[in-house]
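Subject: Tryptophan--tRNA ligase

B.,
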Amino acid sequence: RPRIFSGIQPSGGLTLGNYLGALKRFAALQGGEAETVYCIVDLHAITVWQDPAVLRARIREAAAAFMAAGVDPAQSILFNQSQVSAHAEMAWLFNTVARVGWMYRMTQFKDKAGKNSENASLGLLAYPALMAADILTYQATAVPVGEDQKQHLELTRDIAAKFNHDYGVTHFPITEPLIEGVATRVMSLRDGSKKMSKSDPSDASRINLTDDADAIAQKIRKARTDAEPLPGQVDGLKDRPDARNLVNIYAALTDETPDQVLARFEGQGFGAFKPALAEVAVAALSPITRRMAEFMDDPAQIDAVLADGADRAAAVATPILERTKDIMGLLRTR
Ligand code: ATP
Ligand code: MG
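Prediction pasted inline below.
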């Protein structure tokens, strides 16, 4: 059975971008042809500083968000990365396959390292090798991600191809990114040229999955827009990234196309559109927020789900890791 893998960092509270670009699609992919493996990538989160107590809480909160969004631990393998040591081991093997120059070209590294990149953690630079390990340790053939992860996915393919070539094998698949729908890049509510991110310092830039109805309505009311009325078709939004973003969010939340949404709002301004958007956002998110809170009330249950998920993940990952070591000539005597 083919396998799909994806992950989310517990580097902050999950956002509307994570829901539309990742979680909602993770849930939809369950029960299909492929086995679904979903990971809370805590080893990735620590590539930038995380307070230990906060991190522990966020790992559980992320697990609650996955389940509240419809990821079912009976249908999918749901676990946190650091409990399956194959990820870190495979990442080391890939550190010897990947080239330093590949890493320096990654835009996420440039963005997150900032101006003083000499002072970034070595892990932040090596991040894509660990991500390749996450995916390839399950020999996953497809990875649902947002647009921002496209470059890292290409690097995963490069690592798989170089490994197969260097060792003369067809061990790793050349993984396909699944970047689909209108919400593959939800933008910041404060700046339509920047991605919405859970680690953005501005809370007003994003909608959190824990925000209540009032907070959601207020953030949408204050979202940056222009003074023009909405056009009847999406072509008319070409040079209006803030407006385009809000229309895309609406469409993704109601499973419509942006053109279908605009057909109803043509000629109207944001005074009318924003309250309508707030209404659909609250309708879609409040059941998730409520279910998340219910899961969070029982941390022992979350821990049990993650423990079971880690066992099932390790059962898949370990033989693939061992085969990889064999191919590389690392002697195994037990
Ligand atoms: P951070 O700011 O810490 O990097 P993030 O919000 O970018 O957090 P990640 O954990 O890096 O979240 O990414 C998890 C998944 O969510 C990835 O598949 C990523 O492509 C997707 N994703 C993140 N932000 C968005 C967004 N704004 N729109 C659509 N998908 C997104
Ligand atoms: Mg990110």
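The chain has two domains: 3-178+299-328, 203-294.

T.
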